[in-house]
Each structure stands twice: as structure tokens, then as C-alpha cells.
Amino acid sequence: MDVTTIGFTKTDAKNFFGRLKTAGVKRVIDVRLHNTSQLAGFAKADDLPFFLRELCGADYVHEPLLAPTEEIMTAFKKQKGDWNVFRESFLELITDRKIENQFKAEAFDGSCLLCSEDKPHQCHRSLVVDYLNGKWGGRLAVRHL
Asked: Which residues pair with 6 in a beta bridge?
């Protein structure tokens, strides 16, 4: 099952939606805790579903169950925390939430996990797909856009 991930910072709308369309994304799963970001107007909750449908023919769902808590994010972003501490805290959170039991692997096929970070290597969207892949026996073929 093909799954992609994408971040919306450090890009413009043309590039962002172009990558999604080229990848053939059928559904964007927004894994931000708050989907009203001021970082990019095109990624706000009020507008993003419209843009995705009109420009990419894709659906949109906000899934805060796959997002860090406010406390975990604050410790990492605002207090300039350590990535390894964030990683361990977030992995403990999604383990406690048993996210692998909350979703079916098939629901991720053709989907793209969305977060704000431009690069996936220090973003929780990568942790989510890696965790789920481990729980689901490597069934997800993950590509970062």
C-alpha cells in the first residue's frame, strides 16, 4: 500500500499541490494537532479541503489522534527541546493510544500524511508511518514528497 507524507512550510501552493497531484494522492490525512496554521494560508482547515478537492481530486481528513499533545509540541518547539526526547515522548503517546488498532492499514493506501515540517526526518509524520509499518508488518510503502 502506497503512503506519502508532505510538509507545507518552505514551499508555495503551486509546488505543494503539484507534488500531491503528481503523486496521485487520493486523501490527505492532516496529522497536526491544530489545523489552523498561520504558516501558509493554503494549509488552513477552512481552505485546504476545497483546494485539495478542486486541484487534486483528493479528500481531506483531520486526524488529531496522530498528533502530539500540546505539551509534547511545546517542549520541543517553543523550548527548543531535543529531537530524541520528542521522539521518545511521541512514540510512547502513540503506543498508549494504540493507534494501530484505531485504523485499518487499507485506509492509508493512496493517502498522504500532512504536517508543517518541510523535511520528514524530524517530523512526527515519519514516526507515525514508521510505527504503523512496524505494527502492520511492513505493509506500507512510504515515500516522502
From this structure: 114
